[in-house]
Amino acid sequence: MSSLFNDNSLKRIAEAYEKYEKELVPEWLKKLPERMEEFNTLSWIPVKRIYTPLDIKDHDYMEKLGFPGEYPFTRGIHATMYRARLWTMRMFSGFGGPEETNKRLLFLIKHGETGLSLAFDYPTLIGIDPDDPMAEGEVGIVGVSVPTILDMDIIFRNIDMSAVTTNMTINPPAPVLLSFYVAVAESKGVPRYKIGGTTQNDPLKEFIAQKSYVFPPEPAVKVAMDLIEWSIKNIPKWNPISISGYHIREAGSTAVQELAFTIADGIEYVRQLTARGLDVDEFAPRLSFFWDSHINFFEEIAKFRAARRMWAKIMRDWFGARKKRSLWMRFHTQTAGVSLMAQQPWINIVRTAIEALAAVLGGTQSLHTNSFDEPFRVPSEFAAKIALRTQQIIAYETGVVDTIDPCGGSYFVEWLTDEIEERAWKYIDRIERMGGMLEAVKKGFPQREIAEASYRFQQEVDARKRVIVGVNMFVEEEEEDIRKVPLLEFNQEEIEERQKQRVKRIRSERDRARWNTALSNLKRAASRGENIMPYVLEAVKAKATIGEIMSALKEVYGVYVEPPIY
Amino acid sequence: MSSLQSISEEIKAKRPFKVLVAKLGIDGHDRGAKVIARALKDAGFEVVYTGIRQTPEQVVMSAIQEDVDVIGISILSGAHIHHVKKLMEKLREIGADDIPVVVGGTIPLVDIEPLKKMGVKEVFLPGSSLKTIVETIRSLAREKRIKEKLL
After folding, report:
1. pLDDT of residue B127
2. pLDDT band for position A392 (50/70/90)?
């Protein structure tokens, strides 16, 4: 190990530090006590008064940091980072039917968005048709309703699918939505090698947090791995999985838990894929990640840096990856939805800006910024534009993008990066001892850890140990501010009816023989354990609906029912 | 009143308040429901948590079978008007509309009045404190038992 500091200077700093803590600080404390007994991050990591070279005295620069574009990638995955290419400004969007969503996408593109991201409604997320009784009242509310290939086609009217990349936040029905996308792109003449984007396709975190699971854990993972294997062979520019910490965090985890559980999910997927006989360097470059950026600024920056370093080490040392790209943790970030408050909603704009800044200082490849009106409904055009402009201000006005990893070398940030990493490794060790994440999830381990953390956090908010402006401090009795928020208005009932009618029309007009054959072939392939992707693609081309395809798969794989633990 | 009935009511009067915490609709956001369930339990309530993806029919059946004092609904999908309306209808249909219902989640202010007109006793927005929620539910439970002359 070669320290950044020589013994002599460390000795002088240690002496001065002792003097500071034992003489100077007590003197000041006598005059004015500190505001709190203890200062903690959102992961309850105690934060000291000051950090100095003493806190990172054994820090080996080349081992811990190195250079961007070089192992261990702590400072960034690309050698030139934002000086060459800014992150993709990718706004999670979608509501109503495909027509409303197409209009919103065109609006955001016009205002400078550089990548697309589709938000689906609940029926689509769990793979049921708009005329399923469970879908009643839910169609088009939290995202766009996409039950058929025709809906996907309408969403992409007047959008060049060969020039844009599209993220789809979809999990159990990911093979269906990806097939819609590929089929529509092909129909527009886009060659397969040009089809770019991401399917979330991360089944384990569905059981841990997002809860849009359908199949039980084992078949859920199998289906996700089918999609990955098919993608790397057929649409090489596609990111077939986005291993997601976001929902884990939103469900109430700490930053450390988010990091640890997500990386543990990633480890499980790498094992599953290598067990299929795939070479690690064949698929690892296509794995991508998704993080939350919460409000505790430096903790988030440290988390992103630790994440890159950990993943590079795991891929190189555990799985023997040789390609540089296999070691990259490429990630999308979204500002924290849970940090948005209904009270005094306009100040959510400020929260989002701070969180977005942390994501950029953390070196994200892609970013979604939340809109201030989201505690109430999906965003209006007005609110979404402010959120997009927030990214543009960070990118073009602040200058934070001019040098790479500007927080690197901060005694505090380096110490915190090490601390978060160490705590995350401890969790990963525990999960490894349980037999990996699939087993840990079945035991309910991450679920319980998150429930504990979210309850502890809420108690601290109630006790005002955690301040939330407008909620437990600087509270306004009048709700005047909320009433001034211009919420997105759309006629949900009308859209639901339109979606129902469209799906019925498609069912009555399609070639029944082709449809029937496609679905029975799919079921047979699923029960034989074959890769289902080619069969799903043929089924969507035969105009099978999302609900029909998912029902066929449910017959083979079964349905998960969660034990209600709290 | 038969003596058997009076004995069972005496037992009911002495048992802790019982709450059904339910996720109505198909959204998976269960953080709030779980935190509330835990807070109620810590405050001495008996809590039945349904888990996610419950239909109005299922919630009503659980409420009756479990003989709860209050029903707490958590919805973050924006489909609260639709689902709560159905829930209130089902409760009335079966004659169980004496069970007070409270709703929490991402709910625009303009929807509070319509929900209350349907018979919802209280609506909790994001940012509501655990204490407020727990105490509101406690007083609704107490009211119900007083009405039933169990307190």
Report:
1. 84
2. very high
A336/B contact by beta carbon, under 8 A = no
Starting at the earlier edge strand, list the strands of the sheet with A331-335. A238-239, A196-199, A165-168, A115-118, A88-93, A366-368, A331-335, A287-293, A241-244
Give the mutation candidate from A129, A170, A376, A480 for the B interface (greatest B CB count, under 10 A): A376
Sign of CA dihedral A214, A215, A216, A218: negative
Domains and CATH numbers, chain B: 3-147 (3.40.50.280)
**Structure confidence at residue A483 (pLDDT):** 85
Query: What count of CB pairs under 8 Å joins A to B?
Result: 103
Give the angle subtended at the CA of B53 by the CAs of A104 and A131, to the nearest 5°. 55
pLDDT at residue A1 is higher than 70: no
- Mutation target for A interface from B23, B30, B73, B75: give the one with most A CBs within 10 A: B30
Cβ <8 Å between A375 and B25: no
User: What digits encode the pLDDT tens for the residues A27-67?
Assistant: 999 999 999 999 999 999 999 999 999 999 999 999 999 99
Give the DSSP letter string of B15-68: SPPEEEEEEBSS----HHHHHHHHHHHHTT-EEEE--S-B-HHHHHHHHHHHT-
Domain spans in chain A, listed from the N-terminal domain onward: 7-62, 69-462
Which residue in the block uniquely carries the two structure tokens 């064949």?
A: A282
Give the model confidence (pLDDT) of A489-503 as tens digits.
999 999 999 999 999
Residue A106 to residues A181, A329, A381, A385, Cα–Cα distance (Å): 17, 30, 11, 12
Closest residue in chain B to residue A483, using alpha carbons only: B109
- A69-462, CATH topology level: TIM Barrel (3.20.20)
Question: Is B77–A122 a contact, with Cβ atoms under 8 angstroms apart?
Answer: yes
Could you read off the pLDDT of B15-39 as tens digits, one per residue? 999 999 999 999 999 999 999 999 9
